[in-house]
Amino acid sequence: MTLSWLQIVRLGLVQMCLGAIVVLTSSTLNRLMVVELALPAILPGLLVGLHYAIQITRPSWGFLSDTKGQRTRFIIGGMAILALGGFSAALGVVVMEGNHLAGLAISILAYALIGVGVAASGTSLLALLATATAPDRRAAAATITWLMMIAGIAITAGTVGAFLDPYTPALLLKIVATVTIGAVIVTTLAVWGVEKRVVARREPDEMPFWEGFKEVWAERRARIFTLFVFLSMSAYFMQELILEPYSGLVFDFTPGQSTQLSGAQHGGVFLGMIVVGIGSSVLRIGALRSWVIVGCLGSATALVTIAAMGNYGAHLPLTPAVILMGFFNGMFTVAAISAMMALAGEGRGEREGTRMGLWGAAQAIAAGFGGLLGAAAADTMRTMIDDAPAFGAVFLTEAILFVLSAWMALRIMDSNRPTTENAGLVPGE
């Protein structure tokens, strides 16, 4: 038995809760540390980097959910750890006002917990989706769950921002406690009973983690797809920390206009995801490989346009090019995640969680690495040349990585069979 549409939406609520808690750390707490506490911006950057680094444990959490015979407890337990980490992160900011060292110690522990919680809950959730979603619904399931996660991010950022004014430490803790406790409750209600209806209960497998990991790593398909995920996601995240500064320094955007630019980009992401979800699952147009390649090449084209506009057409409107980039980013993301879900079931049986964990770890490392690399490269280049060509060089590098990712998808992903029936690598590769 496979997941119904209602059950897919219920699991999407878990993704929404994940996004709701994580966005508190990347937006609200980030701003409080930099503005209200006048701390260097690198501090929240390093803390966020810590939670990405901790997610290298994703394969072990996926393996545990494979071998212990039940993913539900890892989803709920991981969300509880994430909630504790989210509240502790807010507490760390409050303590920093009076004692920087004590607040920093609490924050380090909190962001480590956030990394563990996201790894445990997120990986187990994706493994459950990969295991129990019908092949012809995978693209739509990926679209639904990712749109719900983005919705959780947007709704939380908007409502917390509204309720937090005027800011007081007590109000911050009250709001964060409400969000985190609510996330655990919603996750529990959303996931409870779903797994036992769609996945046959199996006996626990006592194989040690490293033996199970070696089994998966020995699969050439898993190794190649891991490289593809790392390369493409590094390209995806390279512009994350530099797009808004680029718009301000080169196109004279105000802070408000830069924020609106980010919103426009995410609007494009939404649209790209919806197009793939409908086109692939409902209209059955094209293979997943085709959607991935179009998304990668379209993203590369948009990035070249953005770079060229800074150098030769700063008077031209930047927003349409950024929306176009977001559209192709969204198309690529959903198609790649759908391929991930399909590939997770190939190879050694009952290792879906381990494979999803391996690719999730590659994605998390790429997110941290890509963002920091893009920012560092832009800063370094700006000491040698003007702002426009400095940022443009980073965007062009990102475009090249997307072209390489498209080439990898062309070589390794199978297009001989229908879109959602098979997203596997070409036999013999």
Can you offer a commentary on this structure?
The protein has 429 residues and is mostly helical. It folds into two domains: 1-200, Growth Hormone, Chain: A; 207-415, MFS general substrate transporter like domains (Growth Hormone, Chain: A), CATH 1.20.1250. Helix content is 79%, strand content 0%. It has 16 helices and no strands. It has helices spanning 5-36, 42-54, 58-67, 72-96, 100-132, 138-163, 169-191, 194-198, 209-217, 220-237, 243-251, 255-282, 288-312, 319-344, 352-382, 387-412. The longest helix has 33 residues, at 100-132. It is globular and about 55 Å long. The model is unreliable at 416-429 (pLDDT under 50). It is found in: Membrane. Keywords: Membrane, Transmembrane, Transmembrane helix. Pfam families: PUCC.
Number of domains: 2
Number of strands: 0
CATH top level label of the largest domain: Mainly Alpha
Mean pLDDT: 82
Please count the helical segments. Answer: 16
Shape: globular
CATH architecture call of the largest domain: Up-down Bundle
- Give the uncertain stretches in residue-range form: 416-429
* Proportion of residues in extended strands: under 5%
What structural class results from the helix and strand content?
Answer: mainly alpha
Q: What name does CATH use for the topology of the largest domain? A: Growth Hormone, Chain: A
Q: What would CATH call the homologous superfamily of the largest domain? A: MFS general substrate transporter like domains
Distance linking N and C termini = 32 Å
Biggest sheet, in brief? none
Order of helices and strands: HHHHHHHHHHHHHHHH
Percent range of helical residues: over 70%
Subcellular location: Membrane
Transmembrane segments: 35-54, 74-96, 108-132, 144-164, 170-192, 224-243, 263-283, 290-309, 321-344, 356-378, 390-410
Pfam family, one: PUCC
Keywords: Membrane, Transmembrane, Transmembrane helix
